[in-house]
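dumping these here so i dont lose them again. two proteins, back to back, each one seq then structure tokens. dont judge the mess
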Amino acid sequence: MSNLFLGVQWRQLQHSDNKISATDPHTPRFTPWIITSQEAVPFFADLPRPITLVFSTDQRYCTGWRDITKHISHPCSDNAMVAPAYDTCIACKKRTGFNPAFYHSSTISPQQEQLNTTPHTLYLAYFSAELIKVGISQQRRGLGRLLEQGARSALILDIFPNAGSARHYEAAIAKLPGIKETVSTNAKTAALAHEYTTEIAQQQLQQALSRIQAALGTTFTPTFHDFSASHHAQTSYDLTDYTPPSVLSGMPLSAFGSQLLTTYHGSTLLMSTSQFTGYPVAITFAESAGLALTPKQIGLF
């Protein structure tokens, strides 16, 4: 069986490696790992080295199912092939039973029902001054969920005893101007062109919080978290287009959620790896000579 790409996983650093940020000492450090069906590879190495990811997009395969109550992933027992639009087969999707938009469904799976009874966190995720998202997640997932989304910083607003209670506030906040409920990958990429500083992010989030509390007539006790240290972040990025799009190569530079950035021949390249889950991947630790750079930059869209 081919080595299938399963995604980018953000893991909290162990205490001995967890260097505390001077600007945000209460936020733990995380680091991205490239997860495949055969191995787990850190994107950033202790000793800097180049990395190349080459995806074969001829056929997509099922990435398996996940026990959403125990947070354990399992391979697809059928090694099923799937259509390009999907990364799980029908059987594994049913076995997982996860529906992030459960509040729009007339029926939900027993797994989702059990998940909904657990404590959930309400948060504001910051991508840029023009892009702030409200969301909820199972408390057990912690800050890792925000790293998975590629948020540059966040406000944890409150923790609720179950998903329904958290969703009540999420729905109300999502109706307010300037707050998004969903953010596309393209919008996240565009946000990287905007200047980011911890001070600006904290100020914008506090202003959003004030509007939310005034509109809802309630008070939260938020906690601010900045993820710049985990991202290896720069203030902003000028991204260069390149071909082929199924290859990423260069020295690891930064990472935001499933988006990996490298420096390659003086240019900054970005790959949104989520589009390649379920495809075979080859990982090497040398720079590829086969990329063609173009003068076109990935602009704001």
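---- next one ----
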Amino acid sequence: MSNWINFSILWMLTGSPVAAAVILLLAYAIADWYAFGFLRGVAHAVADFHRGRRLRLALLHNPHDRKARADLGDILVSQRRYRRAIAIVKPLADENPHDLNALYMLGVACLATGRVREGEIFLGEVYEADPGYRDGAALLQLGRFRVRRGDGSAAEPLRRYLETHPHHVEARFLLSQACVLARDHAAAAAERARCWREYETELPYQRRRDRIWAWRARPSRPLIYAAAACCGIALVGAALQRSTPSAHAAADLRSSPTPRSSAPPAR
């Protein structure tokens, strides 16, 4: 509904539906660039789709290509096709039980498909072998999936992760959720406040990445933005409604024929 209102307002201002549509799409693109980056995510998804097709063809010709198998598994995990990812990546771990990349992907895919014990074992092996692998992502994944399951032990890996990444916004928010699960509401409120403070000190590209977590930590902020936007749209719409009748009246006056005098012309 709001999209149609915006389009109608722009149509009245420009007098052209095409120009209104172009302006609206351009405004959405600019807002997305500075806010969430959905369009960039769509572009990456399309690129991964085409790259995945090429990798599947490569595996059909050479099933022993470890690099193609690992790259395809990474794409499948990013696409959340976890069961397919397990089938693709498992041969890598079978051939080399110390392949941290394969163990990490298997751990994430197993946790996402409900195979909790196996997933935590795989990620635990990754962390024990190399705590800095993927910048410590094994601990973050353990905490993330424990929070999703409502496991009260989620705070332990998140606190260990934050020891080396104290400014990580998502981890701060997840820790606040873990504190709620542990019924420690004071600690949860403190972590939400810390999450917002860390977000405010980030660079613009980091804010774009972490905005969703910061807004979840302080939901009043997006509500204020939404209310201000609705008020602005309502004011512009009211102003246009007031100006439209007078413009139509002026146009009708100009288009009406001028009455002719019935008196004979003077000689």
